[in-house]
Amino acid sequence: MTPNEESEVRRRQKSRSIVMAVLLGAFVILMFAITISKIKAGMHP
């Protein structure tokens, strides 16, 4: 593999990692928001 191809592979891996991190963060925020809303719904009979 040439150095040029290797840097391209690294660039793709980095961009894929960033996308996965953003998706994971969005999932965590969504779960947190759902949990908070369920807790608040349970407080009001």
UniProtKB/TrEMBL annotation:
Transmembrane segment boundaries: 18-39
Keyword Transmembrane: yes
Keywords: Membrane, Transmembrane, Transmembrane helix
Protein name: Protoheme IX farnesyltransferase
